[in-house]
């Protein structure tokens, strides 16, 4: 993700949009929380999605949601402050499949020896929950919340670690948007976009290039043996394979992407801040699937019920949507 929390969002979001020279006009469909437009769906599909529920505004800048089928729960990362600040107050919530918050601060910075500043994307490998946190990647036991490891990427010039995905061999891949927010909300891009890989506890840079377009969302596409990338600073949803010098364009869309996931039937879902929507990519084209979800960040997919859990970055809520089949 790219922005800031509840009160700070009003400053950070416009600054970011302007700095990236993207299509941002401060429209009402980007307003936070209760002022959002009523959600709509794409009625052209046989199984149009429907909103199941919306949580209370209990989260603190929810940035990412990750589903764990093993326990039938969601994890929700909370930035809770400036998304670039090492303030130590970030936390991870645990939420049941029905949207009930089981533990608001299941893992919390400053407690039990845990350091969490501005947690963003997450991935699960076995019993380990991997979390991107500025220039570190933290690993926790998904059942107990205990700290397992902390991999320091600062010496490799990590600046704004954003999303996390599991590769085909169980390695962990992390995008770096390479931006920084100052205390006044101004944004700079002092580094180059990167993707890191952690194998065991050893980290490496697998690609460093501004062709990543402000690297943000990432997920592994098993059926096509490739990663799918959702950049915030490009209108193109991208694909990339380890070893490639640059990503390739998959399909064009509204841009300002955040989360990206692949459903069991192969459809690709990607969230966009540009039009407050989640889009589906299939048959070589992208179309709007869910509308009226302002600042839709890195969503998760309940693989048992085919539901999408969308964190509303500025609204401090998570929405659950039934997306159905083709």
Explain how this protein is built.
This protein is mainly beta and 326 residues long. The chain is built from 1 helix and 27 strands. The protein has one helix at residues 9-19, and strands at 40-41, 50-54, 62-68, 73-78, 91-96, 101-108, 119-125, 128-133, 136-141, 147-152, 161-166, 172-176, 180-181, 187-188, 194-199, 202-208, 217-221, 226-230, 236-240, 248-252, 257-262, 268-272, 277-282, 285-291, 300-302, 307-312, 317-322. A 5-stranded antiparallel beta sheet has the order 1-24-23-22-21, with no helix packed on it. Residues 4-46 have low confidence and may be disordered.
Layout of helices and strands, plus pairs?
Elements: H1 9-19, E1 40-41, E2 50-54, E3 62-68, E4 73-78, E5 91-96, E6 101-108, E7 119-125, E8 128-133, E9 136-141, E10 147-152, E11 161-166, E12 172-176, E13 180-181, E14 187-188, E15 194-199, E16 202-208, E17 217-221, E18 226-230, E19 236-240, E20 248-252, E21 257-262, E22 268-272, E23 277-282, E24 285-291, E25 300-302, E26 307-312, E27 317-322
Antiparallel strand pairs: 1-24, 2-27, 3-4, 4-5, 5-6, 7-8, 8-9, 9-10, 11-12, 12-15, 13-14, 15-16, 17-18, 18-19, 19-20, 21-22, 22-23, 23-24, 25-26, 26-27
In whole angstroms, how far apart are the ends?
29 Å
Number of helices: 1
Radius of gyration: 17 Å
Mean pLDDT metric: 89
The helix/strand series, from N terminus to C terminus, equals HEEEEEEEEEEEEEEEEEEEEEEEEEEE
């Amino acid at each position: 993700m790219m922005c800031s929390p509840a009160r700070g969002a009003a400053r950070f979001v416009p600054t970011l949009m302007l700095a990236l020279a993207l299509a941002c006009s401060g429209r009402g469909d980007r307003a936070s929380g209760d002022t959002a437009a009523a959600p709509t769906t794409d009625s052209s599909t046989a199984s149009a999605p429907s909103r199941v529920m919306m949580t209370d505004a209990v989260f603190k800048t929810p940035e990412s949601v990750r589903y764990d089928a093993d326990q039938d729960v969601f994890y929700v990362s909370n930035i809770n402050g400036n998304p670039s600040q090492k303030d130590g107050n970030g936390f991870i919530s645990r939420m049941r499949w029905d949207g009930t918050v089981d533990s608001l601060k299941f893992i919390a910075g400053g407690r039990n020896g845990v350091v969490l500043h501005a947690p963003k994307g997450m991935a699960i490998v076995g019993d380990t929950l991997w979390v991107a946190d500025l220039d570190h990647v933290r690993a926790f036991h998904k059942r107990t919340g205990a700290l397992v490891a902390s991999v320091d990427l600062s010496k490799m010039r990590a600046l704004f670690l954003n999303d996390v995905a599991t590769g085909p061999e169980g390695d962990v891949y992390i995008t770096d948007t390479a931006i920084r927010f100052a205390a006044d909300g101004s944004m700079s891009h002092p580094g180059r976009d990167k993707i890191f890989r952690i194998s065991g506890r050893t980290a490496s840079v697998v690609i460093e290039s501004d062709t990543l377009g402000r690297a943000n969302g990432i997920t592994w596409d098993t059926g096509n043996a490739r990663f799918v990338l959702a950049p915030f600073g490009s209108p193109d949803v991208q694909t990339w394979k380890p070893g490639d010098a640059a990503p390739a364009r998959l399909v064009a869309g509204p841009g300002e992407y955040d989360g990206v996931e692949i459903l069991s039937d192969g459809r690709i879902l990607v969230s966009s801040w540009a039009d407050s929507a989640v889009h589906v990519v299939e048959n070589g084209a992208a179309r709007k699937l869910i509308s009226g979800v302002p600042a839709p960040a890195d969503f998760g997919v309940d693989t048992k019920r085919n539901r999408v859990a969308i964190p509303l970055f500025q609204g401090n809520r998570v929405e659950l949507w039934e997306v159905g089949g083709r």
